Amino acid sequence: MKNILVVISFILTLSSCSKSKQLDIVSPNGEVKVVINDQDSQLRYNLYKNGIGLVLNSEISILQNLNVKVLGVKMNQVQETWHPVWGQFSDIENHYAELELYLDYQGTSATLLIRTYDKGVAFRFKVTEVSNGISPSFFMEYDLADSSTLYSPAGEGKPFGPFSIQDFKSQDSIKHNLKMPLVVEGDQNQFLSLLESDLVSTPGFDVIDFKFDQQRKKLVSQNNFNSEDTNLVTPWRLILIEDRIGDLLTNTVPLNVAAANTIENPSWIKPGKTLWDWRVHGFTAEDGFTYGINNESYYRFIDFAAENDIEYFMIDDAWYTDVKPGYMEMSDKLDLDKVTAYAKEKGVSLLLYYDRRQGDYGDEALFPYYNSLGMKGIKYGFMGSDVEFTRNAIKMSAASNLLIDFHDGPVPFTGVSRTYPNAITKEFCHAQQDSRRAFTPKTFIRMALINAIQGPLDMNNGVFDISSVNAGEREKGPRKLNSLVTTVTAEAARTLIIFSGLVCIPDAPEAYSEKSDVFEFIKEMPVGKWDDTKILHAKMDRYISTARRHGDAWYIGSVHADGGTLDITLDFLKDSETYKITYYEDAEDTNSKTNPEAYQVRTATVKKGDVVSAKMVAGGGHCMWIRPNNQNQ
Asked: Which is a Pfam family this sequence falls into (predicted)?
């Protein structure tokens, strides 16, 4: 399919009379409208959908406290289709109306870009010359209805919420820091998400956060410009709009406003699955072998990966003992060169961990060194929330043809997978295999519906030997015994529900071999190579059901915190086609606390319009693999 690009524009110059001006810009389908006015020499916006106010009378500014005049405007209509290197869709339509406002802030010229999409709006400022003594700051108010409720990510903890705007107005302060992406549940089942995109392209800006301004009685966000550069371009500030909460996860506005792919030949960037050694250390297989940091352990991982078409094997910490610029002293526990050669022979690519705390060498020397070791990617631990450092790391890893996976409180660079598709995933969540202080079936659903809006997540789902983990038979925890509440089918489903360019499965090869019939769902899943994605059911704290298509095959994963049945209508299948379906299900005796490894696998045939009743126990899951009946699987 060729890209279709249609741009229609016209310029309207406004008089500089004292009367305030009001400008409207409407989305292509006519449902979303932004109204801008400069009453009292301050720029304010109002956001409507189908005539209903979602955000009203809210200030937006790049030079707060300075009077502003609108000198002129330009209107554009753009429609195009583009193709991501990898993602939830193979084709993405970019269709919007755009308003450019030419502004004067008491002698400083600025431009405000406003784009209206059918499913959201985007705002960006540009200042071509920042004068001395002026401190730009991207400031926005969000005057939401009192009945609106908010949810926020909480780092590696359970996401915060729900908070009501009315509660904020009656309190002196907010106890929690509110982070992007905020999820807002409004009246009439209208869902919003407040976040930013394309931060990777805008030096001088840090990640936004939110607070409730008691004086203004409004939610606000502010992002100061800290750079000596006189040219300023802000990230895009976004408000996503959906009728169903799950559709926020497939909203393409954050990708559409992000800068286009900067990697000239991205053919080396391959999404996929990876095995991981760290959480398997100390596990003893039935043949008496105990896993650790050694060649024999890694050969076992590599053999299993090769036999099951798993693209990667990730070696975590402790493979080195000392760090110098462009060089690391290898641990005497293993011979990395031999492991690398063995992996190459088997057709498995290696990913290698790096802990910044052990040596601040995340510079030009680090990434070429990893490339020289024959690695395909780096898992970067403890980088922290340093935006500029992270931005440079993404660029330098791309220059060395390395994938990069950020861990331990990373920067949520929304849209970065379009601009730098080597930024394959990030641990912007509470990872599955970390301590259980927050990770529960309910928390998983919260993170799937909140944290995942900002982009791909590395959550490490897919534990199959649940009993061994709960019994403490692993060196790397969790420390609290019997704290993993899940089922085998829920674990399989979670690997599909959480979108990522790199799905890291954390269990031992033997755990997957022993349950090869249900592992089939993960094995067959083509990670990151999706043609279409749909969120079929979603409710905060209760359940989520996700369907992804690759070619003519569909993969569907569902989980339910409380237990219950979700009716899944197969209306997305083709007419007059019969499909083979494999069900991976909780069994009658499955219990996420006392019998988590019970499951059943069965096959049948289905057609378009059939309804599948996906029954799950509390904390359980349900998976389906659907493909045309004439395929040989």
From this structure: GH97_C
